[in-house]
Amino acid sequence: MPILRKRKLLYIFLTAIALFLLLIQSKLFNHEQLSKNDWSLTSFGDKFDFSYLPNLSDSLKNTYNRWNLKSSNTEPLQASIIEPNNVQFNFVNNANNRGTREEIIERNAKKYTELMNTEVGKPQDASLVPPPEDKQAYTRANATIIALVRNSELTKIGQSIRRFQKSFNGKFNYPYTFINDEPFTDRFKQKIKKYTENAPVEFVTIKSEAWKKPSSIDEEKEAKAMQVMYDHNIAYAKKGSYHNMCRFYSGQFYNVPELQKYKYYWRIEPQVHFYTDVTYDVFKYMETTGKIYGFTVSLYDIEESIKTLWPETLKFLNMGDNYKYVNKNGSFQWLVENLQNPHKNKIAGGYSTCHYWSNFEIGDMDFFRGEAYNNWFKYLDSTGGFYYERWGDAPVHSIGVSLFADKSKIHWFRDLGYNHDPYYNCANTPFTSHCVVGKFSRYEHLNDQNCLMNWLEYDKIKDVYKRT
Ligand SMILES: Nc1nc2c(ncn2[C@@H]2O[C@H](COP(=O)(O)OP(=O)(O)OP(=O)(O)O)[C@@H](O)[C@H]2O)c(=O)[nH]1
Ligand SMILES: [Mg+2]
């Protein structure tokens, strides 16, 4: 064979190898690109319907299409867009959390334990009001402690009240408002008055229109939906009164006539624990700082119970001029996070399902009474989601405050030791005892349900427990 031909063959062979290697490299590179993009995607499922966003630009449609990995050269995601007919929130992972779901859970659990073990005192962003020497003469904030409760829960609410009196209210004497869908019995009232000591007490029966299922609910559709949820093991799926309770706490409680005279409320429930000797007036702290919502525990929800809550919310925000209700300093990233429990985000149509656990709440009812929250609630109610799904008051309150309030007005009461089975908030404070510092749940396997590190790390706000 002539030398020239041999060289030509060698040249062709080497070129083929080079091309082959290039091809492999580009495939690998593309793959890496895609998986890099993958973790930062907003988990909108393929069935998510964007038809209500008629003005969505092509580039944003491409952004959504990235969920299906159809396009890899789109513009960087914007964390939020708040424009008429184009309100959207994208998870941009600004805390730069990386790794597998398991690694993220483990890292977050470790950070949580470390944080809770670090000794912390009281909030530093206000001058705190100590317990008065003379409770009778004390000028309290405009506030009440509320408990929606059944007559049959007397013993369990009694335990909570005794703990609450010892922890906080025995020192400040704020009035209680007990609420029920049925009249309270004399026995209930008498016993309660023993637990509440000297605090004023009011017993309220809810008007049936604020409690009962609206007549617009299609009962056949509801029964079928309840059965599906029941088959998916969703707690209280078939319990009509639970659906009523969730709707009541979501959008009705702050309109109860007997509560109109109050601005602030602290919600308590049967069988909860308070582990901290509170030495400052918590309501006055809310008042001085202008905070509108306080919580202790934040966690993921049962995604099957709120499948359309977030899509319906986006729909509402993209109607008319409703975009104006969104507070540009809201806590959006926490709402659309998709790393710790991505399956939840996908089933809940782009909502992480992270929420404040509403069995403990300290809030400003004027926020809930305001136009933004109220119009949004009315829209939610009109969809029937409190009955065709099992929307809880916790995700509804949480989405509402996260969208419509500045994050700095939402407060994690890190220093208040609390438990509603199976979750805890137990910080290392000199005033807290009888709970295990840093423990999140009675069950170790539930640590993946803790949302707190997400709340702290995305949409950052000042740490008000830090001395400056
Ligand atoms: N009056 C009245 N109160 C109710 C009813 N259903 C629930 N509640 C109250 O609403 C609050 C929340 O109900 P819970 O049954 O504790 O719901 P939950 O916290 O999701 O569930 P648990 O984990 O079982 O405590 C509690 O204060 C209950 O006492 C009801 O039908 N009537
Ligand atoms: Mg409860």
SSE topology sketch:
Elements: H1 3-40, H2 58-65, E1 80-83, E2 86-89, H3 101-117, E3 143-148, H4 154-172, E4 176-180, H5 186-195, E5 201-205, H6 208-211, H7 219-231, H8 240-251, E6 264-267, E7 272-274, H9 282-289, E8 293-295, E9 298-299, H10 309-317, H11 332-336, H12 342-347, E10 355-356, E11 361-364, H13 365-369, H14 371-383, H15 385-388, H16 393-404, E12 410-412, E13 418-420, E14 423-425, H17 452-457
Parallel strand pairs: 3-4, 3-6, 4-5, 8-12
Antiparallel strand pairs: 1-2, 6-11, 7-13, 8-11, 9-10, 13-14
The structure holds guanosine-5'-triphosphate and magnesium ion.
GO molecular function: alpha-1,2-mannosyltransferase activity
Main location: membrane
Family: Belongs to the glycosyltransferase 15 family.
What is the radius of gyration?
26 Å
The fold-level CATH name is Spore Coat Polysaccharide Biosynthesis Protein SpsA, Chain A
N-end to C-end Cα span: 85 Å
Oligomer: single chain
What's the mean pLDDT score? 89
Strand content: 5-15%
**Overall form:** globular
Small molecules (ligands, ions, cofactors) in the structure: guanosine-5'-triphosphate, magnesium ion
- The number of helices is 17
Major sheet size, sense and barrel closure: 7 strands, mixed
Q: How many separate domains make up the residues?
A: 1
Task: Compute the number of strand runs.
Answer: 14
Structural class: alpha/beta
- Low-confidence parts, pLDDT < 50 over ≥5 residues? 23-49, 66-73
Please give the share of residues in helix.
40-55%
Overall CATH architecture? Alpha-Beta Complex
**Under the CATH scheme, which class?**
Alpha Beta
Order of strands in the sheet with the most strands?
A: 5-4-3-6-11-8-12
GO molecular function: alpha-1,2-mannosyltransferase activity
Active site: 361
Keywords: Glycosyltransferase, Signal-anchor, Transferase, Transmembrane
InterPro entries: Glyco_trans_15, Nucleotide-diphossugar_trans
